[in-house]
Design goal:
Blueprint: H1 2-10, E1 43-45, E2 51-53, H2 54-72
Antiparallel strand pairs: 1-2
Bound molecules: zinc ion (ZN).
The site of zinc ion has 7 residues, from loops.
Organism: Faecalibacillus intestinalis
Protein name: Transposase
Keywords: DNA-binding
Length: 73
C-alpha cells in the first residue's frame, strides 16, 4: 500500500483508504439498504429489485465510499 500510495502521488493521483470495517458487501449499491449477507453467496439480491454479482456490488460501494472520503478531505 505504501508503494501504491507513493506511485499514485508521483503521478498526481489520489490514494484513499476505505475503512477496514466498512461493510461493502452488505450494502445494496442501488438503494443503500444494509442486510446481513452470507459470504458464501456469490449473488447479491435486494428487496429493491437489484440482483448482481456480490463482488461487483461491493466494488461499487468501495468506489462510492472512497469518493465520499475524498470529497470530505
Ligand atoms: Zn437495494
Amino acid at each position: 500500500l505504501n508503494m501504491l500510495e507513493y506511485k499514485l502521488k508521483e503521478r498526481g493521483k489520489y490514494f484513499v483508504k476505505v475503512g477496514k470495517w466498512y461493510p461493502s458487501s452488505q450494502i445494496c449499491h442501488c438503494c443503500g439498504s444494509v442486510k446481513k449477507f452470507d459470504l458464501k453467496d456469490r449473488v447479491y439480491t435486494c428487496d429493491c429489485g437489484y440482483i448482481g454479482d456480490r463482488d461487483h456490488n461491493a466494488a461499487i460501494n468501495i468506489l462510492t465510499e472512497g469518493l465520499r472520503i475524498l470529497q470530505s478531505l
